[in-house]
User: Fold these one by one.
Assistant:
Number 1:
Amino acid sequence: MNTRSSSPLKVVRPRKPAAAVHVQDDPAAPSSAGTAPRTTPVLTWDGPTSTRIAPGRYQAIAVRAKGPEWCKRWHRWSLLIEFALIAEPACLVAYFNMGDNPDKCEVKRRSNYFKAWTIASGAPPEKHQKMTPDVFMQNQIFTVEVTDSGDDPKGTPKTDAEKYSIIRAVISAEYR
């Protein structure tokens, strides 16, 4: 006797909600059937707070590095360095493009990361020297260029409400 069904079972798992949105049931919502209380989902933002300050040059200290990691959405390697501004109560990030070859990330001589790393280390890298982001975390005070975020992922300009501040460039470093 064949114990297998003629049509295979298909396991369907619910899709995960977006990482930054948290769905929570609202116990105060009215029920629709009248038998059991029906809960209405309440959407709550759990992602990072977007900071926006006036564009310009600020002094900052690097506090965290993340990556490099492959970003599927952008089809490239990316490295994030977070800076705490000295004169403003804000933390902003600088994003560095590390190449679009999925097999390896690379630092090119004309890249923004090469320029920023050279400023942070005080000298250009020597041949075969590892260019880790740890060099930013050596208690330097950086002068950074802050601008507003530009276009959305589709290339459409963002509205004022959607914009947030990012670090566009590392200008200089003072070593303590």
Number 2:
Amino acid sequence: MRQFHKTRKPRARDAAFVALVLLVLASAGAASETDEAVAELAGGETAACRLRIEGRAIERLTLADENGRVTAVDQPGDSVSLPAGKYRVQEVGLTGGFQCSAYAPGPDGWVQLAQGRTPVLKLGAPLTPQVRVKRVGRLLRLDYELVDAAGRKYVQRGDENAVRPKFTVSKDGQTLGSGSFEYG
């Protein structure tokens, strides 16, 4: 797992401290929730709060805190360790080229990390296809989206030859039309 902050360069003693914490955790086995008690870094920043991830196939998770610092985690697994504070999902990359970008989260889009608590973030696979149908005069407008458990929308990038979802419109058992959706 690789993490970095774009707005703050790690100091040598911060890196040494993190290495020591990782060494202690590795020798003690998996950390329990009571082991999430935290140590203070040199700048007063709190470390070792856990964020549990519920979802699969996540290749890259990018979070932004309330101060605008961005943290990217490759292959996050079941949980990630972050300093205490409020975070929101900025971007999620899944296997197969599926991506989610959160542009303007509402007040419910924040996750609070604090000592002794392990909040759960639901994202990634499995994705659920959703189709919205709207009548516009004699036409039907069909909007297709792939969403995760929290309702975040995903699009598939980079594979122009991917099989596109197909649809058929019928009335009273008679097919009126069919086609396929376009991504994006």
Number 3:
Amino acid sequence: MKMRIFIIFFILAVVLVASIFSIKNYFYYSKKSEIVKSVEVSKDLVLNNLIKYSNELVNSDGISFNKQNNVKFEDFVVLSSDNELIVHFWASWCDPCINEIPDLLEYLKRRKSDIDGKKLSIIFVSLDYDTESLNKFLKSFPELKNSQYLLLMDKDGLIQKTFDIDRVPSTFFIKNSSIEKFLTVVDWKRR
């Protein structure tokens, strides 16, 4: 009888501790949002930082960005002031990132005409450590390999450090000379 009570107590304790960590994680990501607006940040600055480290970035096949078909960042991002740029940092090992992806993909479907018309550019920066993990994840979300999106892997964390990303998901919305920086899950349904 005492053993049953001990086992029940032990199971309840494990469930309680797991619940506390889940709730703490939820509130961490939902309460820690940071939105920054700045006139000092521009698409040019973002692109210059991406171009600066482009030799270190690879695509989802592990090929250096600069070596894949002579593609340039400018091919994906139109630099006129009317256009928008989204730079989204994520990782396949990040639960909030995984939960966010379906809403993000739905948002991109709603903005398809802007993407087709080059009014909206999207750069996905994966913080995965190896291409195997990334490609395994991409099998669940093949829409992320759309040729209109730039999908990069920052396995050495150079871009992450440059943009001062200390958690994922993180997203930059850049339009004109202003930037919104979200260090949390974005509510894509309301954007």
Number 4:
Amino acid sequence: MASPSLSSFAFASQQVVIYAGLFIFTAGVIGGPLVLIVFLSLRTFRQSSCAFYLTIMSIVNTLHMFTGLLTYIMLNGFGINWTNMSLFYCKFRPFFVQLCASISFTCMCLAIIDQFLATCSNPRWHQWTNIKIARYIVMGVGIISILHGIPFIKSYNHTISSITGTFSCAITNSIFYKYNYFIFLPVIIGILPVIIIIIFGILAYRNVKQIAYRAVPLVRRELDKQLTVMVLVQGFCDVIFVTPLIIQSVYSLIIGIPSDLDIMIYLNSILNIIFMVYYCHFVVGINQFKT
């Protein structure tokens, strides 16, 4: 039986999931359509490849609120596990969550790379900041993400947990389990995007500091500055929101699954808080562009 202090901590983390999670969910669902109105109503944004990446990111972030965050709130806040109720949803949710997360972080990286290229002093790099090229790239990213999600559909099944003895939706393929927790979560949607964001964010910031001294039309100069500020703010927030999840993933890889029930409850409670911080990425990615 868990100690009173541990039970209080677990209850507190549950309340964080309920109240913080519902706030994040509401902000994301309301903010998504407003961002689309802003981006699609202004011609300058409709013709910008960077704004196109941010628009796609806002769309998938909004969709992610329903399948990813809402299901997490119901499970860890109210104890209602929708994935146990349907084999279809058990397979669909992991597929769709990885699809949205992969596209979201990829579009963020593409947006910040796009602004680096758009603000370069060498005009040859500017040809890659093209809305047509951006559309083809996003289509390719979508296809790759869908194909990447097929193993998620095959590997998630209803099973009985060997630890708790309860019926649950879990990965039944040991090879895919290692890939998901050793590579996909900590590296593909963790360390790799953070590294790209930091590197190209610094380079884009340096370019913007020098753009005032170049012979660039005033309208183009101001648009580049505005978009660069947007992606830099988003990139900075991503580093803050994703880093705790990276640390937790690496820590879990080192210590493995604890056998002590109290330690497991403690780690799961911390993980609830970390995931609320992580989901802030999807809300900031939606709502910061309204300002």
